[in-house]
Amino acid sequence: QVQLVESGGGLVQAGESLRLSCAASGSISSINVMGWYRQAPGKQRELVATVSSGLRTNYADSVKGRFTVSRDNAKNTVYLQMSSLKPEDTAVYYCYFKRLMSGYEYWGQGTQVTVSS
Questions:
Q1: d(CA 93, CA 91)
Q2: pLDDT number for residue 28
Q3: Closest Cα partner for 93 from 12, 27, 31?
Q4: pLDDT in tens, 48-73
């Protein structure tokens, strides 16, 4: 099992920045993907950004150039630096962990990000 604990959500105004963190603990395999998904009210959960243990990144088109995903493998922590936030970025952001060898996926409890106009 893998436990994910998120922090850093909150209420900001449009144009401001916010940083999310997610610490993983438990049975963490060395070959994995960590990252972030989000779900807005009435919408499906969607990819925001992921980063592999080999530091390969993947971004949704809607956040490219504004968000940066990074990780600290020594701390088993993934970060999401969000800049130039827009009201449409408002959602619950979920931390994500996937073991690449087995395909098992784990989710955090979610953290609310609200961007006011």
A1: 6
A2: 85
A3: 12
A4: 999 999 999 999 999 999 999 999 99
Q: Which residue has the tokens 């105004």?
A: 13
**For the chain, how long is the longest CA-to-CA vector?**
43
Q: Tell me which residue has tokens 């436990």.
A: 3
User: Looking at the predicted structure, is the pLDDT value of residue 38 above 90?
Assistant: yes
CB-CB contact of 50 with 35 (8 Å): yes
The DSSP line for the chain is -EEEEEE--EEEETT--EEEEEEEEES--SSEEEEEEEE-TTS--EEEEEEETT--EEE-GGGTTTEEEEEETTTTEEEEEE-S--GGG-EEEEEEEEETTT--EEE---EEEEEE-
Q: Which two tokens stand for residue 75?
A: 């701390």
What end-to-end distance do the CA atoms of the chain give, in Å?
40
Report whether 31 contacts 11 (CB < 8 A). Answer: no
